[in-house]
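hey can u check if this looks right to u? its 246 residues, i copy pasted from the old doc so theres a chance i mangled smth
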Amino acid sequence: MLQVMIAAPPSNLAEGSATSHAESQLALVRRARKIFRILGETYPDAHCELDFANPFQLLIATVLSAQTTDVAVNKATPALFAAYPDAFALAAANPEDVEKIVHPLGFYRAKTKSIIGLSTALTADYGGEVPPKLALLEKLPGVGRKTANVVLGNAFDIPGLTVDTHFGRLARRFGWTSSEKPEQVEQDVAALFPRKDWTILSHRLIWHGRRICYARKPACWACPVAKLCPSYGIGPIVPPDNQTEK
């Protein structure tokens, strides 16, 4: 269970700014890595929250997770993978049958087209196997850099940064980057951490973004890294009385 304490305000950074103007690159690296360690203590079980048994399942689940929740995807994929256990089966599927399964996830026609299309590409180009290379994954229909890094990091243990909306938001709030562009965010954050930490860093930021550092109203009062965060105070700094974030 996640335990939180009322956070103290940061003492060495300018509140609300991207970073302190006096912060050197070395200081930024040290602060970033301290945040990383504290988030590790806060979320010791941080992991990919999509259920999967192999790289193919993770690839499909990640594509389906666009514009919906991992919880919703995990409810739909057991039936999907029972009916279509591999790329060959899904490539040959009747789109209408697949649409019925993924309908609850929204954008079901587009998602059906994507997962059948990428399965067709897998069978035609890679013998039905998911290639463990970023450039090859990005060539598959419906697969972008974020999806590719999810698969590489979690199915192949190849480090990668998963710059989703949570990751990007927290990276900017922490002052690790000022960019809104995912690839630039990835480059800026990658420069602060050793490559071996990229995948688990992604999980920790995503978990923190889902549980405390919300998009609309971050729970600054409960944040374990408040003392290190230049954005402290953009959300409530005292706990709400008998209320929870919706």
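Residues 25-46+162-212 form a domain with the Endonuclease Iii, domain 2 fold (CATH 1.10.1670.10).
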